[in-house]
Amino acid sequence: MGITTTRDGAIALVTIDHPPVNALPVRGWFDLARAVREAGEDQSVHVVVLRAEGRGFCAGVDIKELADDPDHTALVGVNRGCAAAFGAVYDCAVPVVAAVHGFCLGGGVGLVGSADVIIASDDATFGLPEVDRGALGAATHLARLVPQHLLRALYFTARTVGAQELHRHGSVLDVVTRDELDKAALAVAGEVAAKDARVIRAAKEALNGIDPQPVRRSYRFEQGFTYEMTLLGAGGEARQRFVQGDR
């Protein structure tokens, strides 16, 4: 359990496995960042597949860890950890294919929105419950998945959107059954892995270089408002309501 890396030829599979809902604590985000970064640095790896075990892809951060955080050390840690993990996916030297099933919430959207290709199962849902948790963040990454006005509606209401709708917007490449998800992700990864790795690595760097959105900077800007909400008391109150089950 935790974050593991396995190989399928030139494809590295980085797996999130943190029961019950893949809500990662501070250490988990840094472990994930390290795994993705190391996979990209390995010259024998041509593609990374980011996947998960369990009920869903990722439920974001471990709210219980944040709720029991009198000096805000965990809040600072998880914000830095998320930034590190999202940045590792975005900056990975090789393309990252995200294989998403079930729920993909909060930090899960940050990971997927940082990836290069998304394959989703037909039960996958995506959303940012940040407003309901007294925090802000990952709108930067949701903006890479949906149009602007839908982004705002989803953000303000904390609603989720399904894989089929993201497929219609073009952000999800393929929607498959859950049983076929790993196979479909590996098939796309295999297509990329078959190319000249020197060209693919250069292509990844080139595409990041022409990206109109300053992903790292805009996400850190968002995170500043999470600190404000904590200082105002709204953040702590929301996290306590979540832990107590009053959502």
From TrEMBL:
SUPFAM superfamilies: ClpP/crotonase. InterPro entries: ClpP/crotonase-like_dom_sf (IPR029045), Ech1-like (IPR045002), Enoyl-CoA_hydra/iso (IPR001753). Belongs to the enoyl-CoA hydratase/isomerase family. NCBIfam families: PRK07938.1. This is Enoyl-CoA hydratase family protein.
